[in-house]
Design goal:
Belongs to the RING-type zinc finger family. LOG2 subfamily. It comes from Quercus suber. It catalyses: S-ubiquitinyl-[E2 ubiquitin-conjugating enzyme]-L-cysteine + [acceptor protein]-L-lysine = [E2 ubiquitin-conjugating enzyme]-L-cysteine + N(6)-ubiquitinyl-[acceptor protein]-L-lysine. One of its GO terms (biological process) is protein ubiquitination. It is a single chain. With 112 residues, the protein is mainly beta. The protein has 2 domains: 33 residues, no CATH class; 65 residues, Zinc/RING finger domain, C3HC4 (zinc finger) (Herpes Virus-1). Helix content is 9%, strand content 34%. It is built from 1 helix and 6 strands. The strands form 2 sheets. A 3-stranded antiparallel sheet has the order 1-2-3, with no helix packed on it. The chain has a 3-stranded antiparallel sheet with strand order 5-4-6. A hairpin with a 5-residue loop joins strand 1 and strand 2. The longest helix is centred in the last third of the chain and has 10 residues.
């Protein structure tokens, strides 16, 4: 089962717009709340180009970012830099919140 909580907002031009507030999934009796990962939209591996801002790891500045930090949900590092950072400072390079967990997310094209 999926529950989506949303609000209707009225724009200046008299049109309504739906804004999703929260999404909850129930699978086999377990509740999961869907949350946004910050930075995942600009991290597509296809066509990675060093000149494209926002796609590279914030530490090495050369590899595409593929690792998100929990609990803050910043996707900002490549897996190698994330492993090294975890041993050195254990803090998110964006917000400095302590790292509880790392999630490596591989992004593939539709044809792969």
């Amino acid at each position: 089962m999926q529950i989506t909580q949303a609000v209707l907002e009225k724009n200046n031009d008299e049109h309504f717009q739906v804004r999703v507030v929260k999404q909850i999934l129930w699978i086999d009796g377990f509740r999961y709340e869907l949350r946004e990962i910050y930075g995942i939209g600009s991290s597509e591996a296809e066509g990675f180009d060093d000149s494209d801002p926002g796609k590279e790891c914030v530490i090495c500045m050369t590899e595409p970012k593929d690792t998100a930090v929990l609990p803050c949900r910043h996707m900002c590092m490549c897996s190698e830099c994330a492993k090294a950072l975890r041993l050195q400072s254990n803090k998110c390079p964006i917000c400095r919140q302590p790292i509880e967990e790392l999630i490596e997310i591989k992004i593939h094209n539709d044809d792969q």
